[in-house]
Write a structure and sequence with these properties.
Elements lengths: L1 H6 L36 E3 L4 E5 L15 E4 L12 E3 L1 H6 L9 E6 L1 E7 L8 E2 L3 E6 L4 H9 L1 H10 L10 H4 L3 E3 L3 H35 L42 H11 L4 E4 L4 E5 L8 E2 L4 E5 L1 H4 L8 E4 L16 E4 L7 E3 L8 E2 L3 E6 L6 H8 L2 H8 L19 E4 L2 H37 L2
Parallel strand pairs: 3-7, 13-17
Antiparallel strand pairs: 1-9, 2-8, 3-4, 5-6, 5-8, 10-19, 11-18, 12-14, 13-14, 15-16, 15-18
């Protein structure tokens, strides 16, 4: 037995029979892990005692439709996204199965990745959410505190310890309801609660600023919203994008994939060419647009490494499962780092999600599955550039260049071939300033949550 400990890092703990849960026959070791020793000696209450309700909707077959007048739907993977991808299901299905979430509820992912937490805000209020995401309806003045605790290392470990599943772990409302929540002094609960709710408000304000910025992109370039545009299709029911393509439209590289000639992209290009403003190719605005070479990822601890972001991390409210790559054992590591005013574009799998580097990930290393654009600030305001690329007029131009039979990808050369309208400099700056204010608010939200976690950790450990 002792030789096993020489080769494996095994978490062991002696469990007294008095604490064995014989009611639910809980005999899985993780349920009694050493992760839970921090609550010894603390007054606790079960989570359900601090809540009005905790529940999961029933399992259901998703009936996706393409109608913006129906109910917006979020999959579990999108809960932690800053600007989630949205599908639509019928209002009837959403109401019948009680799928809608409301302001102030707490969402907890319970399948695959356990314990991603989000307080429902005005951004996703009244969305339908997947059934494998538990809903917590807290009692008054506990929303931020509960979210802070469940988001902490201590709360996340408890959620994972209480999860079941031999291959894919899962946890649902009955198990979440039994999570012990430490009852800390009133001033600690109030402070952490207020800090987390203030962070929510910062993200709501940031979201609204970005919407305003993208609205001004359309206004100053005399571009109609895409939902008002008519798309060419031979399908009478307009359910399939079907159009005839002239050989005159073929490019020098003879793109024969249908997506390249999709009606949305063609409509966007036509509308851009009618803009009153000067239109230039993005290559004229870029110092560089590139993808780093593939590299071996030598992961190390935080003290000896550089924070490393995957494409998934970049679109999250705050990166989960953050890893660190070696400073000394990674080839050409400097080429992986990103800096202020870089614009990043996801290039594989989910193509075209755009991120602006501003008071968030400066000097982080980023995956080679993410494209880098270095704007020439003398030719264009980087904030305006980001606002355009993240609008529908930017996204669908990028999306048309994707290719791949199994996994969609886009090459960096295409980022020099986008059509970009150039409004007056003061208009660019106005839009760019809105973007920068939004990213400042996102940074403030992270700071507020970090402050709450420091207060919580000190209260739980005395350190």
């Amino acid at each position: 037995m002792n030789r096993i400990f020489e080769y494996f890092d095994i978490d062991t703990v002696l469990v007294q029979s008095s604490v064995i849960d014989f009611v639910d026959c809980k005999l899985n070791p993780s349920f009694y892990s050493a992760n839970q020793t921090f609550i010894n000696g603390l007054e606790t209450k079960f989570l359900y005692e601090l809540c009005k309700d905790i529940f999961n909707p029933p399992v259901f077959k998703r009936e996706f439709i393409n109608d913006v007048n129906e109910c917006r739907y979020l999959a579990s993977a999108e809960i932690s996204s800053l600007e989630p991808e949205i599908d639509f299901i019928t209002n009837e299905q959403a109401n019948k199965l009680n799928l809608r979430v409301k302001n102030g509820w707490i969402l907890v992912t319970g399948f695959g990745t356990i314990g991603n937490i989000r307080i429902v805000d005005s951004i996703i209020n009244d969305f339908a959410v997947a059934n494998n995401v538990a809903r917590i309806i807290p009692k008054e003045n506990f929303t931020g505190f509960i979210a802070a605790f469940l988001s902490s290392n201590y709360g996340n470990k408890l959620l994972n310890d209480y999860a079941a599943g031999a291959v894919v772990k899962y946890i649902e409302a009955p198990q979440i309801a039994q999570i012990p929540i430490p009852i800390l002094p009133d001033d600690i609960i109030t402070e952490t609660n207020d800090l987390y709710l203030a962070a929510v408000r910062c993200r709501e304000d940031a979201h609204n600023l970005l919407i305003k910025a993208r609205t001004l992109v359309l206004e100053y370039n005399n571009l109609p919203p895409l939902e008002e545009a008519e798309f060419e299709t031979l399908d009478r029911d307009k359910e399939i994008d079907l159009r005839l393509v002239s050989t005159k439209e073929f490019t020098d590289d003879f793109r024969l994939d249908a997506n390249y000639y999709n009606p949305v992209a063609e409509t966007i290009i036509a509308k851009l060419k009618l803009s009153q403003n000067k239109i230039v190719y993005s290559g004229e605005l870029n110092i560089s647009a590139f993808t780093p070479k593939m590299f071996a990822r030598n992961y190390v601890d935080a003290l000896n490494g550089i924070p490393f972001l995957s494409g998934k991390n970049l679109i999250q409210i705050r990166p989960t499962g953050l890893k660190y790559i070696s400073k000394t054992e990674t080839n050409d590591v400097s080429n992986l780092l990103v800096y202020k005013d870089y614009i990043l574009v996801t290039r594989a799998g989910t193509v075209g999600r755009t991120i602006y580097i501003y008071h968030n990930y400066e000097n982080f290393a980023v995956s080679d599955n993410v494209l880098r654009i270095i704007p020439n600030s003398g030719s264009i305001d980087p904030g305006y550039y980001y606002a355009f690329l993240s609008s529908d007029y930017g996204f669908y131009q990028i999306d048309r260049f994707k290719h791949g039979s199994v996994i969609d990808v886009i090459d960096d050369d295409y980022l020099n071939s986008l059509l970009i309208p150039i409004p007056e400099k003061d208009q660019q700056k106005e839009i760019g300033d809105l973007v920068r204010q939004a990213y400042d608010l996102r940074a403030e939200a992270i700071r507020l949550e970090d402050e709450a976690q420091e207060i919580l950790t000190k209260a739980l450990t005395g350190k």
